Request: fold
Amino acid sequence: MDRAQKREFVDSLATVFAETSMIVVTRNEGLTVADVTALRVRMRAAGAQYKVAKNRLAHIALEGTKFDGLVPLLKGPTALAWSHDPVAVAKAAVEFAKTNEKLVLVGGALGTQMLDASGIRALAELPSLDQLRGKLLGLIQAPATRIAGVLQAPAGQLARVFAAYAKANGAEETAEAA
Reply:
């Protein structure tokens, strides 16, 4: 890379770091091209990005951002993964690390909060943002369903009372007529 390309790369990483909420740092020593491609596909499917970056360029891009605490983790062959949904990137990285022992979780950051590898694993066990939205929607809809059921129950009971009264009245009238 020449200087202009390096400057452009650092600027693009700095923009990403300013807009994202979660970064995971991995050590990717010994991963084959096929492994990295499979990891990138899995990350994209989860809405995350995975990038191998030179540590020095990543140091420069991290300076002055909320993720500048990641600088000590960038030693050796490392790669960065990020996403707007913190759980999605953690899940994708942890799931891939389970199937491929050559990918090692080093740590990460959720905003200004630094996480070690066990923190990343704990975050991966949480439900995703879409799952939480679904649960919240279910909780919101449940009271409405119960209210509708409560409102319909008296009307149904009233209708049964009227039907029983009409039936009883009809039986009395036929008994009197006979």
